[in-house]
Amino acid sequence: MAPRQFDGRRFRAARRAKELSQAEVGAVVGVQAPAVSRWEDNREFPKGEKLPALAKALGGQLDDLFPLDGPADLMLLRCDAGLTIAQASEIAGASRGPVGNAERGQRRLKDVYVQPLAQAYGVTEEELLAAQDVTFGLRPGPAAPRTVGEKINYLVQRGYIGQEAPSDEEIARRVNEYAGTAVTTTEDIIGLRAGATTEASDTVRAGLAHALQVPLRLFRDDAEIGPDERQTLESLVFLGSISRGQILGLAARGNGEGLSYEMIAKINEVVGELRHKLPEAPEGE
User: Per-residue pLDDT tens for 181-231?
Assistant: First the structure.
């Protein structure tokens, strides 16, 4: 799974800011307006190779509109170059099999394909081989969020896929309601999420846990998040995915029975790979 997040609401806001219609945006990547509507409703998602053209059409940076959600793998390199598997295979002088098999982690690229693909993707051969290692699972586990702001970002971005995530204003309101008095502001929440400040009182931390429906321990200032906390965070991704039928990340709050966070993280990786092995549905009609 190419590790880029797609948020239909953010995409819609960017389109409207550019005063473009759904049809105009769709024409850039060869789909009809109904397909764009489904993207914006988070019912479907554009293919990864369409994201660079969409970002350009909306006048934004690829990483800003569609943030990375993990280390670069082979699929991400190809998609960020705006190439389909067929196009990449043609550049490499191969059938679709070698590129597709490598992206699915089934068979590594032959040496003869490395240089032309690296050139096509705009990376070095070393970077392409490193991305191939990621595809084949040779990478460290994901870094757990540490600061209060990182934890808010993680929970908002990963815990509400398929449903409305609370805004900064809504989070501040819920925290204040929980505290019974004004202990934070929207600007305070924005500052925490941006890393401008890392300080939050115990009352605010308790309110954040309530607002985002997670155990209070997740907002403790531990130097390193322990297995229980990482287990809960990974559960957000795993269980949350069920909400869309694609197994991509829900607002379930914890995994009460026994799976380790390493196991849940591995399941998340496998599910992401399986999603891209499913037959592709036609776009645009």
Answer: 999 999 999 999 988 988 899 999 999 989 988 878 788 765 344 555 555
Question: For 177-203, b where at least 16 C-beta lie within 10 A, e where not — what string?
Answer: ebbeeebbeeebbbbbbeeeeeebeeb
- List the structure tokens of 10: 């953010």
* CA nearest neighbour of 172 among 189, 152, 156: 189
- Report whether 271 contacts 241 (CB < 8 A): yes
How far, in Å, CA of 234 to CA of 33, rounded?
Answer: 35
The yes-or-no verdict on residue 258 having pLDDT over 60 is no
Angstrom distance (rounded) from CA 235 to CA 47: 26
Per the CB < 8 A criterion, the answer to whether 213 and 251 are in contact is yes
How far, in Å, CA of 248 to CA of 197, rounded?
A: 31
